[in-house]
Amino acid sequence: MSDDHVYMTLAEGHEDDTRWAYGTGFEDPLHGVDTAVPDGVDAGELAALCVTLADDALVSAQRLAEWTTRAPELEEEVALANIGLDLLGQARLLYARAGQVDGTGRGEDAYAYFRDAGDFRNVRLAELPNGDFAFSTVRLLVFSSWRLAYFERLTAHRDPVLAAIAAKGVKELAYHRQYAAEWVVRLGDGTEESHRRTRRALEQAAPYLGELFTAYDVRDEVVAVLRRVTEAAGLPMPVYRPLPGSGRTGEHTAHLAPLLAELQGIARAHPEATW
């Protein structure tokens, strides 16, 4: 399968030509959306879902921000920074919705800056160190493939606010997945060294796939994307051996706490500061 065919296949149904920073646009995705929790929707469950998805995005965005000034090329630095901004925008909307419906009235800063690592519910794949560029692109491929499939289903959620957030996110995530797929193919089908590193990255990511398939039936769809990309890259499909535990229940790696300390340090040192 040619590289171009892989990119075109992954882009089917997501033909928006825009490539940069959907999250920095000026259109309000929630304009005119009824914010009342619909009858039959459990507010606590809705808030918990929003928080988990926001935590995934926030932690992923923080890891992507670490590539600033460190990416192999300036263009990739800009691309990764903009992908991080997209995810940060998703996190803000989701935290805001959680605060609306959980009865606490908390704002997005309270969720992002004033919770400890054990209170976060992100998948552990998001919190792992960046490693080399191959690992970061493989992780982005896995994460964006899963999140895109998940958000596509959430566009039909009974809560109109979550559905609107998901609809906006689908456009962003389609580009994230395409960007990552291009790089995985390029690295896997490149030099002997880039192939080795990308193969190793797939093996490192494989144990964390299990956490991604706990809600909605997206496993087959995500695996199909990974198989298509790895075949085009001349890479073996990673062996799936899930690790025990889950970030969804607050069981994290030792890497999350220092990451959050960096993220939250200024806010906690100056909790009453304003812009």
What keywords describe this structure?
275 residues, mainly alpha, 10 helices, 0% strand, phenylacetyl-CoA 1,2-epoxidase activity, Ferritin-like, EC 1.14.13.149, Aromatic_CoA_ox/epox, oxidoreductase
Can you walk through the features of this model?
This is Phenylacetate-CoA oxygenase subunit PaaC. Its EC number is 1.14.13.149. Pfam families: PaaA_PaaC (PF05138). One of its GO terms (molecular function) is phenylacetyl-CoA 1,2-epoxidase activity. InterPro entries: Aromatic_CoA_ox/epox (IPR052703), Ferritin-like (IPR012347), Ferritin-like_SF (IPR009078), PaaA_PaaC (IPR007814), PaaC (IPR011882). The protein is an all-alpha fold and 275 residues long. Helix content is 60%, strand content 0%. It contains ten helices and no strands. The protein has helices at 3-11, 43-65, 74-101, 108-113, 124-127, 133-154, 160-188, 192-205, 219-233, 256-269. α3 (74-101) packs antiparallel against α7 (160-188) and α7 packs parallel to α9 (219-233). The termini are far apart.
